[in-house]
Amino acid sequence: MKKKVLIIGTSPRLHGNTNILAKSFAKGAEAAGHDVEFIPLAGKRIGFCVGCWGCLESKTCVVNHDDAEEAVQKIRTADVVVFATPIYYYEMSGQMKTLLDRTNCLYKADYDFRDVYLLTAAEDTAPDTPEHAIGGLKGWLKVFNQASLKGTVFAGGTMEDGTIAGHPELEEAEAMGRKV
User: Which residues form the NADPH-dependent FMN reductase-like domain (predicted)?
Assistant: First the structure.
């Protein structure tokens, strides 16, 4: 069955290692025949949620009129959502956390996504490096109980743009994309 796959690159560096990892996932999903869209957040204006809860009725943010709204509505209508984030201080990027907060408007909305994936890259190579980012995403998923975390890929030892080249995690991400 053909699925709508949305990949969100949350790195502030457009050509960063997490976006390269995301493109490997996209390559696999496209090879499997799925419709794939990649949205990089680099250069986008995304304001903070102010917790006013006005979005619960309107299903859209009533305060911020910025670039987050398009991404949030695409999350709502995707079958599969993939987040790609660099690990900063053993946690997801601030851009990713801010976007997740802005999905408050989906809390009472009908949403299509069921499968969620997380792709991470970091300078550190310890296997537990992404555990807090994974925990944060699992916390977000508690609100969306029809969806679940289906897989993660972590590429350590990646600091400068492009240092992920040749890492086996690129093949792992591509294979995961083919299995969506």
Answer: 4-115
Closest CA to 95 of 2, 9, 7: 9
- Give 101-151 pLDDT, tens digit per residue: 999 999 888 999 999 999 999 999 999 999 999 999 999 999 999 999 999
DSSP letter at 64 equals -
Cβ atoms 91, 132 nearer than 8 A? yes
How far is Cα 26 from Cα 176, in angstroms, rounded to an integer?
Answer: 9
Given a contact cutoff of 8 angstroms between Cβ atoms, the answer to whether 69 and 75 are in contact is: no
Q: Please give the structure tokens belonging to residue 144.
A: 């969306």
Residues 6+ apart with CB under 8 A from 164: 17, 20, 21, 121, 155, 158, 170
d(CA 19, CA 49): 25
Q: How many percent of the chain have pLDDT more than 90? A: 91
